[in-house]
Amino acid sequence: MSFLFFFPGLVDCYSRNIEVKPGDNNKSIEKKIQLATNHDTLTFFPGEYELETIIIPKPLIVMGIDFPIIKSKTGNEIITVISDSVQIVGLQLEDVETSFMVDRAAIRIKDSNHFLVSNNRLINTFFGIYLEHAGDGLIENNIVAGDATEESTSGNAIHAWYCKNLRIIDNQVTNHRDGIYFEFVDNSLIKGNISADNLRYGLHFMFSNEDEYIENEFRNNGAGVAVMFSKKINMYRNNFLFNWGNSSYGLLLKEIYDAEIANNTFRENTIGIYIEGSTRINYFDNDFQNNGWALKFSGGCLDNHIRGNNFLTNTFDLSVHVLIEGNTFDGNYWSDYSGYDLDKDGKGDVPHRPVKLFNYLINETPETVVLLRSFFVELLNFAERISPVFTPDNVLDSQPLMKKISRSEIVLK
Amino acid sequence: MFRIFQYSLKDLIRSRWIFYYGVFYLLFTTGLFILSNDLSKSIISLMNITLVLVPLIATIFGSMYFYQSREFVELLLAQPLPRQRIFGGLFLGVSLSLGICYLLGVGIPFVFYGIAGSGEIWNFLTLLFNGVILSLIFSGLAIWIGLANENKLKGFGIAIVVWLFFAVIYDGIQLLLLVAFSEYPIEKFSIGASILNPISLSRIQILLKLDISALMGFTGAVFKKFFGTNTGIIISTLSLIFWTIIPFMGIIFTSRKKDF
User: Which of A19, A107, A281, A397 is placed for a possible disulfide with A352 were both Cys, Cβ 3.0 to 4.6 Å?
Assistant: First the structure.
């Protein structure tokens, strides 16, 4: 201890513990924050609090013991951070009301860097965690559960706007408009999250570049993931499950450049991946299982390379509107490939045409769906496969694999 | 009726052809497993086969058995027995023996493969239900046609045409109509037209199990209600059961009027 006398500046290193107990109101908490020095810990004791917005203007650790419940008194925001190096840990925040004028959030981090938001529970908070002009932060192990019923009256669970170097890890985001929303967010990582039952998208990228999302699970959302107007996004080892409904997809790509989509599982989505105006994208080692359409290409796609994927019992493997040259489909496993392999090199000797005639019919007249799998339609498909008339004859896999590519299934929590 | 049903069932089970029929399914299903080794894929292949083959075999077998057992029927007619009992028993004998054959032929390999523990159990039960009910409907139709036509060749021909109509031609006409009138609201028509064809009904049940993800992709309240909820399964099951009553009633009605 004696050296502190010689280096009084170091006293700051010892963070004091400031206690907040049930019964404290906004005024008393504000005073405590005022008196606190940088890097002190503000400890919320167990119990229930009803508070108005708390503003954290200096580097503090805000910590809860046994998840103290902090309810928004007036329905306004609960915690607003306007300083660097703030940590928010172990709180349960509730009841932020919907507003049509302001995007209210349980935790707002504004113009701040090096923050940590971890192990919190956010329940029915319009927007959950709202980041604006924030960077170098970690958001982990939070549960953000909403009760969204309509897109227009609901917010996003984790919303990031003009941010850099975020890491969003192991969160559970449910029942919001978007699970995780990125707008102008660069160099960030999204890993191990579960995003389920959201009305619009499980994860939504707009104008965000050089990001990576891996090992997430997107379940029962309006659509799993939408990546729009972004460059260099890597998508590895994610699960896209049960994204059902009309105009619903596991993954939507719109105006994307230089992306890589690998080792993902797409199961029981209406459309596995919907691709529009996207260029230089590699799809490899993915599993497409029991989707309505595994891949649906709309116009303006160049240099998409689909290689080494498993297409397993999808209703339609591929739908192509207008396909410009330069997209390849070689070396995949298609479960409805009916060719043979005489030279035993593991690749079929007859090219596979993944686009069926009936797919064309269904695009023209959607009601014909009731004839799916009928004997007559199978006959038509067969005839078309032998000599393509309606379907593009350059869409083919010249080296279809004979055996399913075995891949140890990615197990997520 | 039960006594006659018993006789014809015993007679049929001892017959060589019904045995071959059962063995065919047994080998086919086992073969599918050996080749694909994937439960869900085998179920899809089996469904395709079931929708075409079960009605065809039931039609042919129903006709053949009816014409073959004509002497037996004449003998029975000489007894003081109500006609509907005789023909009702005959119908039940043929259709149930075909149904049992299908059940055993397809079911045994699946049971050995361990269907009970897998998530495919409901798809499998749907398959079995449809196989059995299609056997009932089409053998019933065949007997009805046999009753109405004294001429063997003519009766046989009509039965085959009826099968061809329901299995292939009907879908072709439906497709043509749907495409031709695609400008109009044809949602209700497209579902309604399928209810009038037992094979389409079975197919829809299977679609509801397997292709639900594709079916969810269509807009329109009628489709959404039919495919998105249990309505589809309930309506198609009820319609299928109703379809088994039609040939049964037909047989009883025709047999009453017929002059032997």
Answer: A397
Write out the two tokens for A127: 């927007």
pLDDT of residue B37: 65
Q: Are A228 and A249 contacting, i.e. CB atoms less than 8 angstroms apart?
A: no
Which tokens in the block code for residue A57?
A: 């203007």
User: In Å, what is the CA distance from B142 to each residue of B57, B58, B60, B93?
Assistant: 10, 8, 7, 13
- pLDDT at position B115 is 73
Q: What pLDDT was estimated at residue A408?
A: 58
Q: Please report, in tens digits, the pLDDT of each residue of chain B (260 residues total).
A: 677 788 888 888 778 888 899 999 999 988 888 877 677 778 888 888 899 999 999 999 999 989 988 888 888 888 888 888 888 888 888 998 999 999 999 989 888 887 777 777 888 888 999 999 999 999 999 999 999 998 999 999 999 999 999 999 999 999 999 999 988 888 888 888 888 999 999 988 888 877 777 777 776 777 778 877 788 889 889 999 999 999 999 998 888 888 77
Minimal-distance CA residue of chain B relative to A402: B36
Amino acid type, A183: E
DSSP H helical segments within A186-340, as ranges? none
CA triple A327-A330-A336, angle to 5 deg:
115
| Residue tagged 């709202």 (tokens) | A130
Q: For A247, name the nearest residue in chain B, comparing CA atoms only.
A: B217
Do the beta carbons of residue A69 and residue A45 sit within 8 Å? no
Q: Measuring CA to CA, which residue among A26, A134, A124, A8 is closest to residue A79?
A: A26
* The predicted structure's pLDDT at residue A413: 35
Q: Are residues A250 and A294 in contact, defined by beta-carbon separation less than 8 angstroms?
A: no
Consecutive H or E run containing A362: helix A357-364
Q: How far apart are CA B106 and CA B108, in angstroms?
A: 6
Nearest CA distance, B155 vs chain A (angstrom): 25
- Residue A252: the pLDDT is 95
- H/E stretch holding A118: strand A116-118
Helix H segments across chain B? 2-14, 16-36, 39-68, 70-77, 83-113, 121-148, 152-164, 170-180, 187-195, 198-210, 212-215, 221-228, 231-257
DSSP category for residue B163: H
Instruction: Assess contact for A259 and A234: CB atoms under 8 A.
Output: yes
Other beta carbons within 10 angstroms of residue A263's beta carbon come to: 16
Query: Residue B50 in contact with residue B167, Cβ under 8 Å?
Result: no
* Nearest C-alpha in A relative to B195: A370
The residue among A334, A367, A373, A406 with the most chain B CBs within 10 A of its CB, best to mutate, is: A367
| Residue listed under structure tokens 């170097």 | A165
Burial class (CB in 10 A: 0-12, 13-18, 19+), A87: buried
Spatial CB neighbours of A217, under 8 Å, sequence gap ≥ 6: A193, A194, A195, A196, A238, A239, A241, A412
Question: Would the pLDDT of A412 be above 50?
Answer: no
Using DSSP, state whether B48 is helix, strand or coil: helix
Burial B214-248, CB ≥16 within 10 A → b, else e: bbbbbeeebbbebbbeeebbeebbebbeebbeebb
Gap from A100 CA to chain B (nearest CA, Å): 30
